[in-house]
Amino acid sequence: MPYHQDERVEIPVRADITVEPDFPGGDAWQQVAALCDATAAAVAPAVARGEVPLVFSGDCLVGGGVVAGTQRAGADPAIVWFDAHGDVHTVETSTSGYLGGMSLRLVTGAHPERYADRFGLRPLGPERAVLVNARDLDPAEAEYLATSATGRIPVDQVTVDALPPGALVLHVDVDVIDPADLPGLKFPVPGGPSADEVLAACGRVLATGRVVAVHVSCPWWVATDREQDVTRERLAAQFAAL
Ligand SMILES: NC(=[NH2+])NCCC[C@H](N)C(=O)O
Hints:
Layout: E1 3-4, E2 7-8, H1 28-48, E3 54-57, H2 63-72, E4 78-82, H3 103-107, H4 116-119, E5 129-132, H5 139-147, E6 151-153, E7 168-173, H6 195-206, E8 211-217, H7 226-241
Parallel strand pairs: 3-8, 4-5, 4-7, 5-6, 7-8
Antiparallel strand pairs: 1-2
Helix pairs in contact: 1-2
The protein binds arginine.
Pfam families: Arginase (PF00491)
Protein name: Arginase
GO molecular function: arginase activity; manganese ion binding
């Protein structure tokens, strides 16, 4: 899913399936819905076969498409959301207008007419989402999370007891990783865990045996040197090897 919304992003993986939807035109929400619908269509058959698809994309908004795909295959997952950001804005609270900053909130039911309803996502209750290592919250996000049922934990507290029961979708925005370990991110936030710490925590989520799909969102700029490409290739391979 080599897209940051409708903009192409290079992700150095050899994919079994590359989702290349025809973008319908219209506003950004319509492009996102087309991308999510195509994602769900690619994910559902794999989940139905009992596989655990690993989806790479350029944007967190694809997360809802991955969840919808597992639902189309009969799963009823909760979501574990690794991200340096909260992604819990609404259209009303976003100060940037960046739709990706609303991704998790959309998965838990915000603006269904713009997002979930358009590709058949059944939104999750906010208590079915856990946010891991979100450390750059805008004021409205902090306010929402203070009273929301969505949980928040640091990477080192990702243990089976901290996770929701039942099936899980594992969502990782790679910007949860400290930018020193992953240069070239669109929204870098210092003070994060190392790539190894994030991979280890993801390993613990997968070790529950309850993960039905994995989404790795890669909102990064075009690599500016060979070293960045190598770092990205290695990270993608490490996710594939989990
Ligand atoms: N998943 C991300 N990269 N999110 C970045 C969000 C940045 C900021 N909170 C915003 O809404 O504009």
